[in-house]
Specification:
This protein is of the alpha/beta class and 341 residues long. It is 43% helix and 18% strand. The protein has a five-stranded mixed sheet with strand order 3-2-1-4-5, with helices on both faces. A five-stranded mixed sheet has the order 8-7-6-9-10, sandwiched between helices. Strand 2 and strand 3 form a beta hairpin. Bound molecules: 5'-O-[(R)-(carboxyoxy)(hydroxy)phosphoryl]adenosine (KG4) and zinc ion.
């Protein structure tokens, strides 16, 4: 069976076709960085307006690249939330309309669960995928979340951020350093040229074995460094690289430490890391080293499946549909807040 997945919860419009083995046949993403970059953050009204323009061409391209037509699609999956309500409604209304016109069933899915399950996506039959249960660390622009995942619809929240999400911290620090939006990739690149020991920013672990996160203090720490260097006329490109590296090291250390604590606490030896921040090269390297040392099986999808994509939505929708766990109807509504699920 072919499943068409559509993701429009934030600023990317994405569509993908996945088959029932989890093999990705196409994954198309239309980014809106050109619009929101001008404002240094997402402007919700502009995001939904652009989604209206891009949804049809993006879906058509995904079907074309997969070599199928809409008549070959056995089910559709679409993000219900969390996210921006105006953006979610574009994808959801589109899917409901196609479902009505073509009699194709659909499933509305949780975007964060889909990130955690993106480790099941395959580009080839041989690709290694995890088994349940596993600990998932979802690190994105809006969320930082540790969960114990025991099944496609069995998530136990272990801890999340009390303030800023990890990606949000990257984006805000990038803004302070004049690196543009979104800021994760530019910081990752710049940090490679800097000294991570330049400043030791506090690692906000709260207390041992606590699985909640806090990144707002770190952001203020960077702000103070930037201000004092500016006053001294010493905010050089070299200093910016050192700040980027020091900031990144602090975020990465906390994420790695808490992921290991979560594994320890749940007595689990499988870790999945996903979400846009899981593209970070330093995080990937440190997670690999730490999990190798502890004998933990680590699964981090390739960057294209870590950041927002339609394939993870298709995969989760497919499994929920196959196992009879969920089915959409015309009453299926957007759930913009994560606590509504
Ligand atoms: O999962 P995602 O694509 O969208 C959300 O659901 O939020 O994550 C986007 C976030 C942004 O904050 C972006 O700056 C961050 O992921 N990001 C990165 C990197 N690439 C993207 N953060 C750190 N390092 C990266 N290489
Ligand atoms: Zn996301």
């Amino acid at each position: 069976m072919f499943v068409l997945g559509i993701e429009s919860s934030c600023d990317d419009m994405a569509a993908s076709v996945v088959d029932d083995s989890g093999l990705v046949l196409s994954s198309v993403v239309s980014s809106q960085d050109d619009i929101h970059g001008l404002y240094g953050g997402i402007v919700p009204e502009l995001a939904s307006r652009r989604h209206i323009e891009t949804i049809v061409p993006v879906v058509e391209e995904a079907l074309k690249r997969a070599g199928i037509t809409i008549d070959d699609v056995g089910a559709m999956a679409v993000t219900r939330g969390p996210g921006l309500v105006g953006s979610i409604l574009i994808g959801l209304s589109f899917v409901k309309a196609v479902s009505f016109a073509r009699s194709i069933p659909f499933v509305g899915v949780n975007h964060l669960d889909a990130h955690a399950l993106s480790a099941f996506l395959k580009d080839g039959a041989e690709d290694k995928t995890p088994e349940f249960p596993f600990v998932s660390l979802v690190v994105s622009g809006g969320h930082t979340m540790l969960s114990l995942v025991e099944g496609y619809d069995k998530f136990k929240l272990l801890g999340q951020t009390r303030d800023d999400a990890a990606g949000e911290a990257f984006d805000k620090v990038a803004k302070l350093l004049g690196l543009g939006y979104p800021g994760g990739k530019p910081i990752d690149d710049l940090a490679k040229k800097g000294d991570a020991k330049y400043i030791h920013y506090k690692r906000a672990t709260i207390k041992k074995y606590n699985l909640e996160f806090s990144f707002s203090g770190l952001k203020t720490g960077v702000l103070n460094t930037v201000k004092s260097l500016e006053e001294e006329g010493a905010l050089t490109d070299e200093a910016k690289a050192d700040i980027a590296a020091s900031f990144q090291e602090s975020v990465v250390d906390v994420l790695v430490k808490k992921a290991l604590w979560a594994l320890d606490k749940t007595d689990c030896d499988r870790l999945v890391v996903a979400g846009g921040v899981a593209c970070n090269s330093r995080l990937r390297a440190k997670l690999k080293a730490a999990t190798d040392k502890e004998g933990i099986a680590l699964f981090i999808p390739k960057p294209a499946y870590c950041s927002d994509n339609g394939a993870m939505i298709a995969l989760l929708g497919l499994r929920l549909f196959e196992e009879g766990l969920s089915i959409g109807s015309f009453e299926t509504n957007a759930l913009p807040n994560s606590d509504e699920f």
